[in-house]
Amino acid sequence: MIAGPLPDLVGRQHECGALDDLLTGLGEGGSRVLVVRGEAGIGKSVLLEYVAARASRVKVTWAHGIEADMELPYASLHQLCTPFLDQLDELPGPQRDALRVAFGTAAGDPPDRFLVGLAVLTLLTRASETRPVLVLVDDAQWLDQVSLQTLEFVARRLLAEAVAMVFAVRDPEGRTALGGLPALRLDGLDTAAAGELLEATVGGRLEKRVRDRFVAEMHGNPLALLEFSRGRSAAELAYGLDSSGFPSGQGPVAGRVERDFAGRLGALPADTRTLLLIAAAEPVGDARLLVHAATALKIAIHAAPAKAAGLIEFGESVRFRHPLVRSAVYHGAGPEERRAVHRALAEATDPVADPDRRAWHAAQAAEGPDEEV
Q1: What pTM was estimated for this model as a whole?
Q2: Quick one: which of 40, 65, 105, 348 could link to 254 by a disulfide (CB 3.0–4.6 Å)?
Q3: What is the domain class of 13-185 according to CATH?
Q4: What is the mean pLDDT of the chain?
């Protein structure tokens, strides 16, 4: 991998140092495992981007946990192993066959999970013989259970292989996941770093008591600081703090950030909100699938307002600005709206290429038990 641009990090020198040490050990041929823990918006994903950008002459593979995928066994594991599947035939026969069944490329009884874990370990180990391998797993608390267990199995059995694994886990949802592995806990930025980030975002200096109050209300959470100051000037923060719709500081930061995203949704046209709901309900990020579902619902594909609001990116794939945007969109919709979207996605999903996902959408669209599903 050619190192990409480093993300702009403020106040994370210690954490970046820990990740630099991990890469140094990997470059020397040793295995490393690290679990980055913290609340939503605290900067876990940015740190994964940092280590990916720093990883020169390393093969980097990603998996992103997605809440809607949690009921699909092996979905995240398949995402992570895809770059190495051309080496599948080189695995020992039982391991190869188990992984093929797990990934749906061969028929058979449910595979032995021990063999699946060994297959993934062997696949990564053999890939590392030509180049060190860096495995990055974001939002690990949302991995499907069997993928999480398999990756934990692999992490605990790395020895002298040139393989490093870095997981990002949101607390409190993932507090029981990956227990006992080396961990790096992220807390809020200190007052100085949070103030620096805030002033950089608003493009001006703030009176100290205004800055400190704002930082304290956000508990140093970088995403909260960025999102609540987005589009506001230093003067607006200084003179409109009590009357501009900011929360009082009560409740979890994640919930407050999610409410801010929800507030932006309310200002969007109805068709755009439905388009976002389709994207939130379909975690693959396939733009063509989104278009087919939107057509089935007879809505205009009007994405520009959502892009302008900084909520989502549309291209060949669809990507939300942050998982909390997806959560705000999905949970902010009514039950019938969600069922209609899942119904359209079930119709748009290829029953041959992706029967499990099609069935899952059909189940979500049903008002109760349905024998046809």
Answers
A1: 0.74
A2: 40
A3: alpha beta
A4: 86
